[in-house]
Structure formats: structure tokens, C-alpha cells
Amino acid sequence: MVALRNHSQLLSYGLGAVATVTVMRHHAQVFVPAPDSAAHAQPPATLVQAMPAASAMTTALLTGAEGAWAKGGVYGPLEGKASSLVHPIILPLLFLVTLYTGFLGWQWRQTRLVGVELADLRKQLPKDEDPEAEPSSAHKELKAQIDKLTQERSELVQGKYKDRHYQISSLLLGGGIFFTAYGVCNTYFRADKLFPGPHLYAGVAVCVLWALAAACVPFMEKGNETARTLHISLNVVMLALYVWQLPTGFEILMKVWGLGIPWF
Q: If residue 178 lies in a helix (H) or strand (E), which one and from where to where?
């Protein structure tokens, strides 16, 4: 629709220019000089004065039409305020999702560590102990610890933290990168340029850290403790950058909200 409107504008300006020139030529033909001075006939002074003005007006109109055709409205609703507010509204919500994802990951880690601790305690139980003999106090204390950890691990397993952490992390990775790229593209659509600065650089770093943390998962599944430590470290740095992004993102949100541009 925008392109069609711009084409119509350009056509109307062109037709107006042609009509102006035609009318001026008609007025030039109304004045008929005497036969003996036909060879030396000069156009009327009013016509000579009007021609530069008409030419300037025609040039200005055509230039204005070309500018309207090449700039505003080229990307349609993607340049509007509604589209510009998508990134600064969605990314703070994804920050909350990041916190929840971290909680799920921590709970899954606790589930795994409790299982490892249980296995170590069970190895300490005497294998040749007489079942009819009175167990020692150390044996009773060990069994009490095993029973407590078994109950705790059962509750953690019922939470299905591993599956939930994996699923929500996948959504966070895809959604975070998509809406970050959407914000960058929207800035270009609206301003015809990007604004390199701390907010842009930190946003790119957050996306890179998301990808690197996700790349550790296949190694973590095989029990690689180095990959687990690296995964946690990358996410801690990412979270710190994300927190630092929030104030600068709020400033950008306020600027976009105050822009005098259409919503769609």
C-alpha cells in the first residue's frame, strides 16, 4: 500500500509538471507578432519570468516525490511504534525466564548431587553385618542419613527439573536470539542506521554466551565436570551482563515511547 501510494504521488507530480508546461506554451502562442517582426519575435517578459519559477517548482515537486518514495513507509508496520516496542518489552520478560531457568538448573544439579552423595553413603554400609545383631550407633546414624537423602531425592525427582530446565532453556535460547535480532533490524528499519554502543555490544555478548552455554550440553550429558563448570560460569557472566542491560534498555524504551511516529 505504501509503495502504491508513493507511485501515485510521483505520477500526480509528473502530470502536474506536464500540465504547467502545456499551459505556459499555450499562453506563449496567444501573442502573435506582426509579420515583419516575426523573425525577431521575443517571448513576453511575464513568460520569461515565469519559466524559471515553474522549472524550480517542478524540480522541487519531483525531488519531494522521490524522497517520499525512497524513505518513509518503505518497511510498512515494521517502522511503527508498536514494532519498535517489541524488543524492549519482550527482553525484560525473557530476563525473568532466565532467572527461572537458572532455578530449574540449580534444582537439577541438587538432584544429581544428592544421588552421588547417596551412592557414597551406601558404600559405607557394612556388607557382612549380622542382621540379628544390634546395629551400632554409627550404623544407625548412617542409615538415618540415607533415608533422609532418599526422601529428599524422591521429591526432587518428582519435580522433573532436568526436563523442564532443558525445555525452557531451549525456548530461551531461540526466543532470546530471535528478539535480539528483531530489535537490531527494527532499529535499522526505523532510523536507517544502527547505534553502536554499550547496549548493543553487551546484547551481542549475551547472545554469544547463550550459544556457548548451550554448546556445553552434549559434553555435560556424558558426565564431563569441566563442561558443567563452564556451563554454569558462562551463564553467571551472561546474567550479570543481562542485569547491566536493563537500565540502558529502559532508557531506550522511554526514547522509543516518546517518538512521534505512527503505531503501525
A: helix 161-191
